[in-house]
């Protein structure tokens, strides 16, 4: 791009100012809907279901799909397509299976605002609600992954120091989420999702002039990759996440269960009417397809035209610098920034809602306000304040944790999500379909599944994050079934004994 690069920093800076102005305006607009905990957490019925569906896809995409997974493609080649195809097909299948029942359960007992509250209501257990809220805190690793992705983008494209890039992302997101809550987050994500879709398509179309080959562009891409290393066109990769059929199966299980994550399933609770769920799931499916499939090909192309990058996660930023004129680069960079921030804001909202609604309300309020007889409105105001205060705290913690750059952005983002899935997959799914599911089994599943995952990854017994999650979630299902049946049997025996005593 030559001397044109001198215009890149001012262009992106101008767009960032515009972006910050837009999100701040959305935050102020959303303030009218976020005066209560319900409005702040889910903005129920305040956003069109098609926009909520687009927001779902945008929150799903993140730095992982636009930076981390193309980084895998740069390193491991075509085997990475196992991940991207699963992101659309397997995740959307999970969404279609879970949405309606999840929504119906979420309407009971006055309505649920968070996954921990949903589980607490489903199993009538405050202990389970608190345990899952603590597990949700693992999403801090996902936020750190987004911070790293944003900083990598700024550093690679326009030379902004790594730490400054992290600080910019944290400040922008915390400001507009604290102002407008779920309304600002969902609407801004819907806009960002549309921008990200355009970026994905441009990245894919660019292969026509960076790789060439016309209608045979895929053949040319495969031939070029084979010339570099035949392993790059193998369905399995040596030393990477896709090294065996079982490893790929574990990844598909992750992607199927991914839909259960708190920052995604909360979108379902935003939909006001059951008939609107069809619009929501269709919009989410289109968004997932567009945002999941196309960007990985740019990572493959980067391996051909830009060999020897020091960081695989910088493949996409480096590629767009090589493939596009400066004005388009600026637009693409803003699209990639949107991909990162659209997930970050959902994660912040999910964590802080759980801190306020499920930890502060359940654990702290009965102690701090024991004899004050708070009204519902007073209690709601205090819980809302706790959520907003925790938002700033989580932002600072994530900034601190992001200082040291990880080796793989994709592995970091999947570490925390895998811990959560290991604990909640069984209680949510069996809670739909199995009449014997009860709170004893659900608690056992959360403790054993998440505990097993932390032991396996912490000790290095299983270093593959996805396999550790697979085995841990299987243990979670086994524990829940066993303990639920045992608890049911003990209750029946106790009931029989009491009846016998009364008969005497």
UniProtKB/TrEMBL annotation:
It is found in: Cell membrane. The chain crosses the membrane at residues 6-26, 47-69, 81-98, 127-144, 164-184, 196-218, 242-261, 282-306, 318-341, 386-403, 409-434, 441-462, 468-487. It is a multi-pass membrane protein. GO terms for molecular function: symporter activity. Keywords: Cell membrane, Ion transport, Membrane, Sodium, Sodium transport, Symport, Transmembrane, Transmembrane helix, Transport. Gene3D superfamilies: Sodium/glucose cotransporter. InterPro entries: Na/Glc_symporter_sf, Na/solute_symporter, Sodium:Solute_Symporter. It catalyses: L-proline(in) + Na(+)(in) = L-proline(out) + Na(+)(out). GO terms for cellular component: plasma membrane. Its main location: membrane. GO terms for biological process: sodium ion transport. The keyword Cell membrane applies. Belongs to the sodium:solute symporter (SSF) (TC 2.A.21) family. This is Sodium:pantothenate symporter. It comes from Planococcus rifietoensis. The lineage of its organism: Bacteria, Bacillati, Bacillota, Bacilli, Bacillales.
